[in-house]
Specification:
Elements lengths: L2 E6 L8 E2 L2 E2 L17 E6 L2 E7 L5 H11 L8 H8 L4 E8 L2 E11 L2 E10 L7 H15 L4 E7 L3 H9 L3 E10 L3 E9 L9
Parallel strand pairs: 8-9
Antiparallel strand pairs: 1-8, 2-3, 4-5, 5-6, 6-7, 7-8, 9-11, 10-11
């Protein structure tokens, strides 16, 4: 099973510097903040009931397998790195569930007013049905609630489908990060001002 490639922060634990500053995952943050709103929210996509919920540790094996299917070797996360991102103080992982199946997930991290999308993974069987857009909309709403105004992400310059997805949702290319991924693969840094643009329903 392959997935739809969106964004992926680099898999190395020693994260690179950009403009002399560490990536957002290295910034100190307070205790992990969870919205006090509904923990599980139901939606309908193509007539199917879909739930968006918070990550639970028992989901780890499934999201690791999904990440391995969504990204090529060198960009897909090892178990160590996936656990590292999930454990960051400002991290949040949202799960899109289709019944008992995990259709996709999104990991973000925050250091208001900045937010960072670490990865967005959607299974092949659920792609082009709105799951990625739904996860992104929920994550952006959570980030805005917690004071984030600008969201950044990185995606490979060769990832045409992913770049088109982000641009459709209001993200703009800000810089080229040379040799960002293993194998000397460059990435685009993309940003969106949450307070300046409505969320796309595409």
């Amino acid at each position: 099973m392959s997935g739809l490639r969106f964004a992926q922060a680099p898999p190395q634990k020693s994260l690179p510097l950009y403009n002399g500053q560490p990536r957002l995952a290295e910034f100190p943050a307070g205790g992990r903040k969870i919205l006090s709103a509904k923990a599980i929210e139901a939606h309908r996509i193509c007539g199917v009931s879909v739930t968006i919920r918070q990550y639970d540790p028992h989901d780890f094996a499934a999201i690791f397998k999904l990440d391995q299917s969504c990204f090529p070797p060198g960009i897909a996360y090892s178990k160590t790195m996936l656990k590292y991102y999930l454990a960051q103080p400002g991290a949040e992982c949202l799960i899109a569930g289709d019944g008992a199946r995990i259709a996709g997930f999104l990991i973000s991290e925050e250091n208001p007013p900045l937010g960072h999308i670490v990865t967005l993974d959607v299974a092949e069987s659920h792609r082009r049905q709105g799951f990625g857009s739904l996860l992104l909309a929920e994550s952006e709403a959570h980030l805005m609630f917690r004071g984030v105004r600008t969201v950044l992400l990185e995606t490979a310059t060769t990832n045409e489908a992913g770049i088109a997805f982000w641009e459709r949702h209001g993200y703009r290319r800000e810089a080229v990060l040379k040799n960002y991924y293993p194998g000397r693969l460059d990435a685009f840094e993309m940003r969106k001002l949450l307070s300046a643009a409505p969320r796309s329903k595409a």
